[in-house]
Design goal:
The chain is mainly alpha-helical and 193 residues long. It contains 7 helices and 5 strands. The protein binds heme C (HEC).
């Protein structure tokens, strides 16, 4: 057998690799994978209660329902909340009619804007930021703790593939500009200061 000079062999591998990268069928395969991911993410979001808390609720003809024109945009910036009611006895929490503001022993938390708006939503987040937030229960994996009632303890059981699919779906949503307020400390903590 004739020996192929090493240089030619390397060139051959390089050309094959280049063709593999730019081959249209391959590119289409990647696009399909992404489309499948987005579909799977939509399914997971719709079955994992994200809309219950991250989509503002409104009064509809059959009672309260999530306002899908503002899907997953978090606590509406124009809905200012008065101080939460004083809770006693076995009552430990209260929530807004929009389902986007929650009072409890942790203070008041406001649900985040999950749409891809770069300034007020997850537009600048990477898949990694998202996965690390859910895995660690800390903002982007290293910031402040994510407060209740965000069900971190439940969602950290998602696989990486599930979380990637959820993130791909969230990034495919129309971006909604809505700046969610920072959480408020517990009333007792404020009084003690
Ligand atoms: C029971 C209510 C509830 C449900 C259900 C819920 N969330 Fe949240 N989520 C919250 C609240 C409240 C916050 C804000 C917490 C804070 O400010 O610390 C939040 C924050 C977040 C954040 C932002 C974290 C950060 O550090 O900026 C992400 C991302 C998120 N939720 C994703 C999701 C996804 C995806 C789902 C569905 C799989 C979901 N949430 C379901 C209540 C909820």
């Amino acid at each position: 057998m004739k020996r192929i000079p090493l240089e030619y062999a390397i060139l051959g591998v390089a050309v094959a690799a280049t063709l593999a990268v730019v081959h249209p069928a391959r590119a289409q395969g990647a696009a399909e994978r992404t489309a499948d991911q987005v579909k799977r993410g939509q399914y997971l979001v719709s079955t994992s209660a994200c809309h219950d808390c991250h989509t503002p609720w409104k009064m509809g003809p059959k009672g309260p329902e999530p306002d899908m024109t503002r899907a997953l945009s978090g606590h509406p910036e124009n809905v200012a909340m008065p101080p939460p009611p004083k809770l006693e006895g076995p009552w430990v929490g209260a929530m807004a009619a929009t389902m986007t503001a929650w009072a409890g022993p942790w203070g008041v938390s406001f649900t985040a804007n999950l749409t891809p708006d770069p300034e007020t939503g997850l537009g600048k987040w990477t898949k990694r930021n998202f996965i690390e937030t859910i895995r660690t229960g800390r903002h982007m994996g290293r910031g402040r703790e994510v407060l209740p009632p965000m069900p971190i303890a439940v969602y950290r059981n998602f696989t990486d593939a599930d979380l990637e699919a959820i993130f791909s779906y969230l990034q495919s949503l129309p971006a909604i500009r809505n700046r969610v307020p920072e959480p408020l400390p517990p009333v007792d903590a404020v009084a003690a200061k």
